[in-house]
From TrEMBL:
Annotated function: Subunits I and II form the functional core of the enzyme complex. Electrons originating in cytochrome c are transferred via heme a and Cu(A) to the binuclear center formed by heme a3 and Cu(B).
Domain Cytochrome oxidase subunit II transmembrane region profile: 1-77
One Pfam short name: COX2
Species whose genome carries this gene: Phytohabitans aurantiacus
Cell compartments where the protein resides: Membrane
Region (Disordered): 221-247
Chemical reaction(s) catalysed: 4 Fe(II)-[cytochrome c] + O2 + 8 H(+)(in) = 4 Fe(III)-[cytochrome c] + 2 H2O + 4 H(+)(out)
Lineage: superkingdom: Bacteria
Record-annotated membrane-spanning stretches: 6-28, 49-68
Name of the protein in question: cytochrome-c oxidase
Record keywords, A-Z: Copper, Electron transport, Membrane, Metal-binding, Respiratory chain, Translocase, Transmembrane, Transmembrane helix, Transport
Enzyme Commission number, as recorded: 7.1.1.9
Signal peptide positions (record): none
Lineage, top ranks: Bacteria, Bacillati, Actinomycetota, Actinomycetes, Micromonosporales
Similarity comment: Belongs to the cytochrome c oxidase subunit 2 family.
Length: 247
């Protein structure tokens, strides 16, 4: 998709330079030189042919490459290495690590976000990861900017799927909801923590042994809490709401 956007921008600039050149050429070539009217042309077949066929060709080329890229992006494998069920809800995330694809699969372990703790989604490098998305209420959108990709999370029986062939670089990446979903939409963040396959296996084992996500992260030598974002002060916790403070 990144290459498609770069190619589209380059093509648009080429067309833009051509059009701008024609505009300035007309300004200079046909500027007013007196009171005599220039020759009035009712139609120009070559020009009409050009501005009819050229846009069709441009749209056809863009459609062709878009279809190819979209097909490649939507392609999923039958046996991904990691399967994560993404559950969106007002206004947080739950990530379920699954043993198979579809609603009949079982959840091995999960991470649930709260108003006080940003959920951390842990994934390994170099593995094919399948995301299955669903929502408990309204439409949300799962977005990690560094992945250059996002996909809407729908309620009901619609389960969007997409697969990441491999994440090459370890690190912490902020994740966000990219669909306006209500009052605390802007605060509906999560963190993608990418670790080595060995650390990922240790993390899953620790979770299955009863450790919390924070405890499991500590056991594999990672920061227990999100480092790219933090909980926003909200009024969701009534005990922290002081009517006299104006907050």
């Amino acid at each position: 998709m990144y290459d498609l956007w770069i190619g589209s921008v380059i093509a648009a600039l080429v067309v833009g330079v051509f059009v701008w050149g024609l505009i300035f050429w007309c300004i200079v070539r046909y500027r007013k030189r007196g009171d005599e009217l220039p020759v009035q042309t009712r139609y120009n077949m070559p020009m009409e042919f050009l501005y009819t066929i050229a846009p069709i060709l441009v749209v056809s080329v863009l459609f062709y490459y878009t279809a190819i890229v979209q097909t490649d992006v939507d392609r999923t494998s039958k046996n991904p290495d990691v399967i994560v069920e993404v559950v969106g809800f007002k206004w947080n995330w739950q990530f379920n690590y699954r043993d198979g694809i579809g609603t009949d699969a079982n959840t091995i372990t999960s991470t649930l976000g709260s108003s006080d703790v940003i959920p951390v989604l842990v994934l390994p490098t170099g593995k094919r990861v399948l995301f299955e998305e669903t929502s408990k209420d309204v439409i949300h959108s799962f977005w990690v900017p560094e992945l250059l990709f996002k996909r809407d999370v729908f309620p009901g029986s619609i389960r969007n799927q997409f697969e990441v062939s491999s994440i090459d670089q370890e690190g912490a990446y902020v994740g966000r909801c990219a669909e306006l979903c209500g009052t605390y939409h802007s605060m509906m963040n999560f963190e993608l923590r990418v670790v080595s396959p060995e650390k990922f296996d240790q993390f899953i084992e620790a979770k299955q042994d009863g450790a919390t996500t924070q405890e499991a992260l500590t056991q594999i030598g990672e920061e227990p809490l999100a480092t790219t974002t933090k909980p926003f002060p909200t009024k969701r916790n009534v005990s922290n709401f002081n009517p006299g403070s104006g907050e």
